[in-house]
Design brief:
Helices cover about 80% and strands about 0% of the residues. The chain contains 18 helices and no strands. Keywords: Coiled coil, Signal.
């Protein structure tokens, strides 16, 4: 399922030249068909001429900035435009856009019933869309996306328990996939189910019989605190074991139960940073596969800059990247050498030795041998040019051909001299 794009529309209340012209034309038409005294902001709003209503309201508000009635008309016109846009966004399935527009309208006119009605409708539809998308993500194993969508659905529509339950489930499933075992998963599910059941019974009892008895509220709070404390202890143990993704999920679970948990907030912050370190190291591995060694080193350095407890792992990855780069440079130099690309091979060995701070395997000996061959080939080629007999020329050229068959025109000259 493809996620709908969620824009951030601005509150556009200042008319553009085209909008102003259309509004003026609409206003003139209304004036021609109605007596002047009947052309009011309310009349234009009722006619769904929202641009015309806004233009008239702005004109009258500018003429009478201290008049409460004209300012109220301006607010009503602004809200009418926002409400119209919100309705259209809702009909088009852009529920998040609709909610934002309605929140802007509500800020202008708090408590207006139609705004509240449409906001309730859009929130419910957006929450259902998020829950549906979360379930799809969970089905494909994308637990992080599922968690984000369930959590957002729970935030905007807290009265529906399905998003909260879905959030708990994907966090436990994510940890189960991290290799924490079936017993962990079953225990976590059972604890959360028992907590929810106890909460439901206590809330029902309080509603029916004990609305004035604070003991039920106290028991509910105590149960929540105990369960949250258990998730916190599990999170801290995972964190000590450097299982940062599992630890973060447990901290998230704890905060689902009791939101005001400073220790969980701190744990979330720590584990989120360390997970980012792991992500950087994963990106370094992917860069290594593509032989992008400089990119891999950048990712390692970013990890090093933020970690507090994974310094050893980061340093090990740095050494791995450096070694992989040197090995790659060495292999490239050897291939050039094997292809008798002597001068490029020398340059490749020089680059390798510079990267390796002067030493790597037998690179120095191979580079020096190639440099000697360059000097020797030059001397032998000069002697061949100066030789008076064909046999002497052949002798010098054959010697060059033994270690550098692609040197200058040696192969062509040998063929011309009848050498097989």
């Amino acid at each position: 399922m493809t996620r709908r794009s969620i824009s951030r529309p601005a509150l556009l209340l200042r008319s553009t030249g085209l909008a102003t012209g259309l509004a003026a034309l609409a206003l003139a038409t209304a004036c021609a068909s109605q007596p002047r005294k009947e052309v009011t902001v309310s009349y234009l709003i009722n006619q769904a001429d929202y641009n015309g209503a806004l233009a008239l309201a702005q004109e009258r508000a500018a003429d009478a900035p201290d008049d409460q009635a004209t300012q109220a008309d301006l607010t009503r016109a602004q809200v009418a435009i926002l409400l119209d846009r919100a309705r259209r966004a809702n009909f088009e399935g852009r529920y998040a856009d609709s909610i934002e527009l309605l929140e802007q309208a509500e800020a202008l006119w708090p408590g207006q019933s139609e705004i509240a009605l449409w906001r309730t409708k859009s929130v419910a539809q957006q929450a259902e869309y998020l829950r549906e998308h979360a379930r799809d993500a969970e089905a494909t194993g994308d637990f992080e996306s599922a968690y984000a969508d369930f959590a957002e659905a729970d935030r905007i529509d807290p009265d529906s328990p399905s998003a909260r339950i879905g959030t708990e489930r994907v966090l436990l499933r994510a940890n189960h996939r991290e290799g924490l075992g079936d017993a962990y998963y079953r225990k976590g599910v059972r604890a959360l189910r028992e907590y929810r059941a106890a909460e439901a019974v206590q809330n029902l009892d309080a509603a029916l019989k004990y609305s004035d008895d604070p003991r039920h509220v106290d028991r509910r709070s105590e149960a929540a605190s105990l369960l949250a404390e258990e998730r916190m202890r599990i999170a801290e143990e995972f964190e000590r074991q450097l299982l940062f993704r599992a630890a973060r999920n447990e901290y998230r679970l704890a905060k689902l139960i009791v939101d005001d948990l400073p220790d969980a907030d701190g744990g979330l912050e720590r584990t989120t940073v360390e997970i980012q370190v792991l992500d950087f190291l994963d990106e370094a591995d992917r860069a290594l596969i593509l032989d992008k060694f400089d990119l891999a080193l950048v990712r390692v350095e970013r990890a090093a800059a933020i970690t507090t407890v994974q310094a050893d792992a980061v340093e090990a990855k740095r050494k791995e990247v450096v070694e992989a780069k040197l090995r790659h440079l060495y292999q490239e130099a050897r291939e050039l050498e094997s292809d008798y690309a002597v001068l490029p091979a020398i340059a490749a060995y020089d680059e390798l030795l510079e990267e390796a701070e002067g030493f790597y395997d037998d690179a120095i000996a191979r580079r020096d041998s190639l440099q000697q061959n360059v000097e020797l080939a030059g001397r032998l080629y000069q002697l061949a040019n100066e030789a008076e007999s064909t046999e002497d020329q052949l002798d010098y050229l054959r010697r060059i051909n033994l270690f550098w068959p692609t040197y200058r025109d040696v192969a062509t000259r040998l063929k011309a001299l009848g050498d097989n």
